[in-house]
Each structure stands twice: as structure tokens, then as C-alpha cells.
Write a structure and sequence with these properties.
The complex is a heterodimer of chains A (207) and B (108). With 207 residues, chain A is mostly helical. Chain A has two domains: 3-76; 80-206, no CATH class. Chain A has helices at residues 3-11, 18-27, 31-49, 53-78, 80-112, 119-144, 150-169, 177-206. In chain A, helix 2 (18-27) crosses helix 8, helix 5 runs antiparallel to helix 6 (119-144) and helix 5 (80-112) packs across helix 7. Chain A is globular. The termini of chain A are close together. Residues 1-12 of chain A have low confidence and may be disordered. Chain B has a single domain (7-101), classed as Winged helix-like DNA-binding domain superfamily/Winged helix DNA-binding domain (Arc Repressor Mutant, subunit A). Chain B contains four helices and two strands. Chain B is globular, with a radius of gyration of 16 Å. Classes of the chains: A mainly alpha (207), B mainly alpha (108). The A-B interface holds A 2-8, 10-11, 13, 15-16, 32-33, 35-44, 46, 63, 66-71, 74, 78 and B 24-26, 29-30, 41-44, 46-47, 50, 54, 62, 65-75.
Chain lengths: 207, 108
């Protein structure tokens, strides 16, 4: 049981949203800093929750979203050029892996949905397998850059969006715009989810 | 050797001086947010405090865990000798910059 859970049980206080705490844990790789930041956020949450629990939960989520980038990348910045190199390698390897995975899965889908009236279904299936591939790639990136596991997932997602925008501006390979929009909108959260899964594993090992 | 600090770093350093034994992330964030009338994120405050610690301007210790924090400890910050030197120097620099500015521009 974590220190936080023990404290809540001891006092009967209803703390911050559990899902937000899980997200917070994933974006702060350093165990000491994580406990301190989560403690500070819990304290402020309790203060605001006296007036409105809904407002306190919204405040908590808003703080986390705004803190995600500085907290994630400060761990890389503190690691110096080695950490930046590792981050770059993680993103390049994960992007290559994602490219191969998407190519293989699309080739397999093409065999199943070769009839012309199934083209729409094939594209939907392609978006769904794209989500899975991005999760796997985000996870792989986080394995390489364990100092700040969520950082490469974030950069990978942005890189995929940039490449997608470039492809669309060049005609989008003849594929419909809805396909690209759906792919672009899910690739960043998917790669972050993959990286966060790895972060959770790492936290489980250290705590 | 002189240590340079940015605007937010100096503001956080001054908050640590003001808050004395109560200087920890949440209190520093609240203090700065109230004074600057803008909502700083806890992430921005901690990365700033960590930079100050890396520069040797503040030092930190852990407190006992408390129930209101979900059983977690606070990281209490205090200003070091080097930090006090930076605060004094910043004050002198500010005073030097303001010298010669008409009084009508000095009023808030």
C-alpha cells in the first residue's frame, strides 16, 4: 500500500481523483519528487474541496496538465547531454518501430479487406491498429529512456503528427481526410499511454 | 563566481526567504500566485526550486508525513548563504536600475 493510501485510510479523507494520481505518477519519474508533488497537490485539493469537490478535482487535473511538460522534461534536462541523447535515440528507434508495425499491420489488413466495398472498414481497422502500434511504440521508447519515460512518448506523438501533416499537405496518399484527422488526433495520446504504462511498471519496481 | 537567476527563480527565492520554515512547493506556489496575480503550475514551481537547489541557492530537507497530504512528506526549502548573496545583489541591481527614474513612474 502506498503512503498516500495509508494516509487516506487513516483519516477517512476523500483524496484527489485516483485516475489523476495515476497520471501524475506517470509524468514524474523521480520517486522523491513524485511523493512531494503529489503531497502538495493533495494538500491544495483538500483546501479547495472544502468549498467544492468538483472545483477541487478540476483544479487538480488542470494543475497536472499544465505541469506535465515542465516535470517530464526537467528530468531530461537534469540528466545533461546523455539524457538528451537517450531521448533522441528512444524517439528515433520508436518511430522506426512504429513505421514497420504500421506497414505490416496495413499489409495484413489489405489482405482481409481487399474487396472495394470493404475499403471504409479497412481504413477504420487501420486507425484502430494504428492506436495499438502507437501504444507499443510509446512503450518501447519509454523502455530506452527510463529516466523520463513519458518524454519520448510525447516527442514521438508530436513527430508523428508533424509527419502526418506533411503527408496530408502532399495529397495524403489518396486517402480520405477523415482517416488522417482520426489518426492524427489519437497518435499523441496513444504514444503517451504506452509510455505511461512503462512508467507505471518502473514505479511499481522502485516503490 | 556570480550565479545568475531568472525572474521566476528570483521570485521563488524571495518566497522561500519570506516563508521561512513554511517554504515548501504548495506554499511557494500560492505565495507567488497571490503576489503576481497569476496561477503558477506546481510543475513550474518545482522545476524552478530544483534549479535553485542545483545552483546551491537553496537547500531542502524532508518533513514528517501528514494526513492532509495523503500521508506524504513535505520538502522544506531554506535559503543558503549563496542564496542570500544573490538576493542582496539582485536588490542592489534593482535599486541601480531605478535610480534616476521620475517619481511619477515609481508609484504603483
Amino acid at each position: 500500500m502506498t503512503a498516500g493510501a495509508k494516509g487516506k485510510r487513516a483519516t477517512g479523507l476523500e483524496g484527489p481523483p485516483r485516475s489523476a494520481e495515476v497520471f501524475a505518477a506517470a509524468i514524474i519519474p523521480d520517486a522523491n519528487l513524485r511523493e512531494v508533488v503529489l503531497g502538495d497537490l493533495a494538500e491544495e485539493h483538500a483546501r479547495i474541496a472544502h468549498a467544492s469537490r468538483l472545483r477541487a478535482n478540476a483544479w487538480y487535473w488542470w494543475q497536472l496538465i499544465r505541469s506535465a511538460l515542465p516535470l517530464t522534461f526537467s528530468a531530461v534536462a537534469r540528466g545533461g547531454w546523455r539524457a538528451w541523447t537517450r531521448l533522441a535515440v528512444a524517439v528515433i528507434v520508436a518511430y522506426a518501430a512504429l513505421f514497420v508495425l504500421v506497414m505490416v499491420s496495413d499489409a495484413m489488413l489489405w489482405r482481409f479487406f481487399s474487396a472495394s466495398w470493404l475499403q471504409g472498414t479497412m481504413l477504420v481497422a487501420s486507425v484502430l491498429t494504428g492506436v495499438l502500434c502507437a501504444v507499443v511504440a510509446g512503450y518501447a521508447a519509454a523502455c530506452i529512456c527510463s529516466r523520463a519515460p513519458v518524454a519520448p512518448g510525447f516527442v514521438l506523438g508530436l513527430l508523428c503528427i508533424a509527419m502526418g501533416v506533411m503527408l496530408v499537405s502532399r495529397g495524403g496518399d489518396g486517402l480520405p481526410i477523415w482517416y488522417w484527422v482520426s489518426l492524427e488526433s489519437i497518435v499523441l495520446p496513444s504514444s503517451i499511454v504506452g509510455a505511461a504504462l512503462r512508467a507505471r511498471q518502473l514505479i511499481g519496481r522502485t516503490s | 563566481m556570480t550565479v545568475s537567476v531568472g525572474d521566476l527563480e528570483l521570485a521563488a527565492l524571495l518566497a522561500v526567504v519570506r516563508l521561512r520554515e513554511h517554504a515548501y512547493g504548495a506554499r511557494v506556489r500560492r505565495d507567488l500566485s497571490e503576489r503576481a496575480q497569476r496561477d503558477y503550475s506546481i510543475g513550474a514551481i518545482y522545476t524552478t526550486l530544483q534549479r535553485l537547489e542545483d545552483k546551491g541557492l537553496v537547500a531542502s530537507t524532508m518533513s514528517e508525513p501528514t494526513a492532509v497530504r495523503g500521508g506524504r512528506a513535505k520538502r522544506l526549502f531554506r535559503v543558503t548563504g549563496a542564496g542570500e548573496t544573490v538576493v542582496r545583489r539582485a536588490r542592489q541591481e534593482q535599486a541601480a536600475f531605478w535610480r534616476g527614474v521620475p517619481s511619477r513612474l515609481r508609484t504603483t
